[in-house]
Amino acid sequence: MKQHKYRLIFTYSLFSLEMLGALLRPYFLGEAVNDLMHGSYHGLIVLSVVHLTWLSIGTLRHRYDTRTYSSIYTSLVIKFLSRKQIEKSQISKMSAHSTLAREFVDFLEFDLVYVIEAAYNLFGSLILLYFYNRSVVLVCLTILLPVVAISYFYGRKMKKLNRVKNDELEKQVDIISSGDQRNMRQHYNNLRKWQIRISDLEAWNFGFMELMVMVVIAGALFVTHSAIGTTILAGNLIGIYNYILKFVSGLDTIPYTVQRLTSLNDITRRIELQEDDMPDNTPGKIKHINIAYKEEFTELSA
Q1: Reported confidence tier of residue 49, pLDDT bands at 50, 70, 90
Q2: Can you give the pLDDT at residue 293?
Q3: Residue 34: which of 293, 232, 271 has the closest Cα?
Q4: Which tens digit of pLDDT belongs to each residue from 214-255?
């Protein structure tokens, strides 16, 4: 997969520039408002240039990335299938692995850029809020600590649920081919059971996250009002509020990121990807494949 290295670097570089533009727009919007209140159009001109640049980069990135990821998927599936001598007894597992390979590439194309965007929103917002009001940054960091702690335990539980669900999924083609109504009913009931448990865990985590979001917004606005009062410029208030929302958006992404990473970890192990199959700039934790898991999986499937 080394042939895709530079295409991936180019894609993620474009996306990083796109996210940088999105992060800076609220600042330039605030400056434009402040300048207009003083009778100047300078801030509005700068805002327009920034927005058009961001739009051009985003359009180019959207046109380029699908071509890159579709090429990766084709190479990945053909390579890992060609390493195996497919027997009749392995068709079910191979079918499931092909589906899981698609999910892996979807992670690179959609979820990984979503995670990068969340990182920009979280840390970029904190940096820019620091220049507006340091007290707001302290409020955000105070909320971030319990969110990270809860997400750790959420990730451990989600890892177990994804593993047993994928165990069941690998049997699907064999069960359908057998034509046994009882086995098919039990198989889909098992899938339904694990999906419900995953959904319930997501729901509880969603409720906790939204509670933290409410605390962040209320606390940040209260601190801003107490520290600055009515003397704050309108443009600065717009900037502070927008960066609070961006921080909250990044906060909301943490549980989803944990869920996808745990799911992807299970997927990469199941399709037995080797390191040379992975794009060179894939994050190290994802790129590392624990070969010992193959023995564990064989025992579970027996």
Answers
A1: very high
A2: 34
A3: 232
A4: 888 888 878 877 766 666 778 888 888 888 888 888 887 877
The H or E element spanning position 246 is: helix 234-270
Residue with more model confidence, 58 or 7: 58
Query: For the CA atoms of 106, 21, 253, 11, what is the dihedral angle to 10 degrees?
Result: 20
Cα(103)–Cα(299) distance, rounded to whole angstroms? 25
Query: Going by C-beta distance under 8 Å and a sequence separation of 6 or more, which residues neighbour residue 52?
Result: none
> Residue 156 and residue 144: Cα distance in Å, rounded?
19
Residue with tokens 């533009």: 21
> Distance between CA atoms of 98 and 80, rounded to whole angstroms?
9
- What is the spatial distance between Cα 22 and Cα 24, in angstroms, rounded to a whole number? 6
CA distance 148 to 119: 13
What average pLDDT does the segment 169-189 reach? Answer: 80
- For residues 144 and 93, give the distance between their C-alpha atoms in angstroms, rounded to a whole number: 41
Task: Please compute the mean of the pLDDT values over residues 96-104 and round it to a whole number.
Answer: 64
Query: If you average pLDDT over each of 53-62, 173-182, 250-259, which comes out highest?
Result: 53-62
* Mean per-residue pLDDT of the chain: 75
- For 32-71, give the DSSP string: HHHHHHTT--HHHHHHHHHHHHHHHHHHHHHHHHHHHHHH
Cβ proximity of 217 and 5 under 8 Å: no
Phi, psi of 160 (to 5 degrees): -65, -45
H-helix or E-strand containing 138?
Answer: helix 134-169
The more confident residue out of 143 and 109 is 143
- What value does the CA radius of gyration of the chain take, rounded to a whole number of Å? 24
**DSSP annotation of 289:** -
| CATH hierarchy code of domain 85-301 | 1.20.1560.10
How do the domains of the chain map onto residue ranges? 85-301
